Amino acid sequence: xxxxxxxxxxxxxxxxxxxxxxxxxxxxxxxxxxxxxxxxxxxxxxxxxxxxxxxxxxxxxxxxxxxxxxxxxxxxxxxxxxxxxxxxxxxxxxxxxxxxxxxxxxxxxxxxxxxxxxxxxxxxxxxxxxxxxxxxxxxxxxxxxxxxxxxx
Length: 152
Fold this sequence. Notes:
Pfam families: CopD (PF05425). By secondary structure, the chain is mainly alpha-helical.
């Protein structure tokens, strides 16, 4: 259980913390410092590096989550907060998969071809999805840490 929980928490920290840093701190700074071409190149490069870590989280979080559920005796013994965590977690994974295979793919192509308007549109779509996923991630962390107290 200790190994599963440790990996689970580390994966969540990387993913949710990375989204927080990007959305809350880097996004406003990049917008104030860089013109669109440089900003799009920055984000494309950042996402290429960050998404490697997100893929690890996307794999580890469900694996370790189900591992811990199995160690506890199965879904029958999992609290309401665990079921909610699974739901929000899988929704986050689906949103990331869409982000990665649609707007991020368009962002990379736009940066390669220097199509800055298309890149701006793709980046805006990514921003919206990351904003939703960040909110879901924070709610999931709140539920994970306090859910058993909220739901009994």
